[in-house]
Design a protein that fits this description.
Elements (H helix, E strand, L loop, with lengths): L5 H5 L4 H20 L23 H24 L7 H23 L3 H26 L4 H25 L3 H26 L7 H18 L11 H9 L2 H24 L1
Helix pairs in contact: 3-4, 3-9, 3-10, 4-5, 5-6, 5-7, 7-8, 8-9, 8-10
Amino acid sequence: MHEQPAYMSLLGWRCEEECRYGCMWRTVEEIQLSDPRGEIPQFYGKWPFVRVLGIQEPASVLFSILNGLGHVVMIGVFRKRVPSHAKMYSVVHWLAAVSINAWFWSAVFHARDFSWTEKMDYFCATSLVVFQLFMFFTRSRFNGFEESAIFGTLLAVLFSTHVFYMAFVKFDYGYNMVANVTVGQLNAFCWLGFAFTNVQQRRYMWKIIATILSINCLLLLELGDFPPIWWTFDAHSLWHAGTVPVVPLCYSFFIDESLYLLREAEDTAV
């Protein structure tokens, strides 16, 4: 192992991990030699991926980074177009912060799978889904600060309970998926109901409708699974790729909605 490149060592590739990686590919080669159409198994709970510079799942890392950069760029666009006194200004900034954090840990986890990077990826992804639900409530209850605070506290307690169970009781993949999909679908139902109710008065509502429907269609990739194409692109990485163009569309809606609320407040004041 003394000839191992420095970046491999920094990413934690030790003798045992290198042995597993080599054995995995020898097994895959044997399967393909004996039966080119043979079913490729998962190893240690993962499909076989070709490493790039020591990165375990390069496609998922790349697309996670692109998602994070999308939020960085679009929050800059939002800041330029929306005055700081607009009602949605703060909550959209918090959404960007939570999203960037979630995509950062997604990239870290897919770069190198350790127990702690996996937990951070899962917990931060859940925090994003939960915050989106809180964001909807604050949007529909702008004049009810106390109600928003109570609802936010309730969500914080539920999120903390979820994290505690996953971290210290049982890291249950099935339960985590059901919990996230349930909150995600509730979030989608709320936003779609809000959008269809107001689409006649505000034509830009199509943007949030397209965002929600696109994410739900892409969710089929998360629920499905198949061996990676070219040992690089699996269903999960394609989910990450599909969400990249959704980011600017979502922020475009928040810009339009913020400006609408600002004009409405100005008209009321007059």
